[in-house]
Design a protein that fits this description.
Length: 405
């Protein structure tokens, strides 16, 4: 058995699992290292034996978390106890801040503790900027995915490093796209499927009226395939469900347009240069809370990165004391009405090369269908969006080679 450095990793979502696997591979190239922790299939493939199924941590929304709170607390205690027993040299938590930071806070209080590293910075540029100061009190190092993030944490004394985004390393084949094929991505959480699939069904129904030969492919995870199959039986089009990264990437190469929930998948679509729109809705209570707390005027990372390219101060303005009116005016002086500035706003007034967003009350089937049809039929709109995607992905390239904490 190896006597190398013991690293304990924690990932709670599929996107974190993929990041964790890349990190494990990078660490193995640079040093003799052993792994323990919590992760999914990708991290298991790199040699991790998960303490319990990662899916138990994949919760979103106020009620989802409250409903499963007793189990989450049990898992929290078990995780901390295990770390105390095995005494790793370093603990790396990956995203999933609700769980990860509770673990780190408890570990920080130990008289003899491992180095505490978190991978994926909290989105303080979008909401709750005070988190930057709080996590600086119990973390030793922060690994950031986006180039504008380190200064937001370093000003509070937390060592932070932009390590690049794995999306920038993705490669896709050039295939002939099927002009009738729509790629639908309803999210990686069951709560998202429940909320979005009915909306997407009605949207597809409207799009089919304009594109009679419309076909739909839904790439998903093995754990969600059965649930999706049941829900799409009544859809008015041919629906194919695929699983696995290779098949997902092939769909991204063949599809003509994408319909996606907000999240990492937006950057994957950008890397594949597949024109898409974002549509997302939370439950009523979670949506109201988000409406109050979120300060940034976009949810799609492609749009946020483009705003950063236009003005490097954009994320700092969002995380500071200025309100979102000043933030958006800094990037888009032509937009002047307050009701256009909220996260729930319909973004059609922004330049066409920005990825359209339909969020919360604007997550309406007529608006979403209109955006999809434009990308199906307007070649100029497609070209402009692809150009913007390329610019956004270029910003994600790491300044150096390997990912190292």
């Amino acid at each position: 058995m190896s006597s190398g450095m013991l690293t304990f990793l924690i990932a709670g979502e599929p996107s974190g699992d993929r990041l964790g696997a890349d990190l494990m591979a990078s660490l193995k190239k640079n040093q003799d290292v052993r792994f323990m922790g919590i992760g999914g299939e990708a991290m298991k493939a790199e040699g991790l034996e998960s303490l319990f199924p990662m899916e138990e941590l994949s919760l979103m929304g106020v009620f989802s978390i409250l409903r499963d709170l007793p189990n989450l607390l049990r898992r929290l205690r078990y995780t901390v106890k295990t770390i105390q027993e095995v005494k790793p040299d370093m603990v790396i938590t990956i995203d999933s801040p609700d769980f990860s930071f509770r673990v780190m806070k408890r570990l920080h209080k130990l008289p003899s503790r491992p180095k505490l590293v978190h991978y994926v910075a909290p989105t303080v540029w979008a909401w709750r900027p005070g988190r930057a100061r709080k996590i600086a009190q119990f973390l030793d190092h922060l690994l950031c995915l986006y180039p504008f993030e380190p200064p937001l944490f370093e000003k509070h004394g937390l060592k932070s490093t932009f390590v690049g985004h794995p999306i920038a390393r993705m490669t896709f084949k050039t295939r002939k796209r099927d002009p009738n094929l729509l790629c639908v991505l309803p999210g990686s959480r069951r709560s998202e499927l429940k909320m979005l699939l009915p909306i997407f069904k009605e949207t597809v129904t409207l799009v089919k009226k304009e594109i009679p030969g419309l076909k739909v492919i839904i790439p998903t995870l093995p754990t969600l395939k059965e649930s999706i199959e049941k829900q799409v039986k009544t859809w008015p089009v041919e629906v194919t469900i695929v699983e696995g990264e290779d098949k997902r990437n092939e769909v991204f190469e063949r599809a003509y347009v994408g319909l996606a929930a907000s999240g990492t998948v937006a950057l994957q679509l950008a890397a594949a240069r597949l024109p898409f729109v974002v549509a997302y809705s939370l439950g009523a209570l979670s949506g109201k809370i988000a409406h109050i707390l979120i300060k940034i005027p976009y949810v799609c990372m492609v749009n946020i990165l483009l705003a950063f390219k236009k003005d490097p101060e954009f994320p700092s303005l969002c995380s500071g004391s200025q309100d979102d009116t000043k933030v958006l005016h800094k990037c888009h002086p032509e937009e002047s009405r307050r009701d256009e500035l909220r996260i729930s706003s319909h973004r059609r007034e922004t330049p066409i090369f920005w990825v359209p967003e339909y969020i919360q009350e604007n997550c309406r089937v007529d608006k979403i269908a209109e955006g999809l049809l434009q990308l199906f039929k307007d070649e100029k709109a497609r070209e402009e969006e692809v150009k913007a995607m390329i610019e956004a992905v270029d910003l994600l390239k790491a300044p150096s080679g390997e990912i190292t904490p």
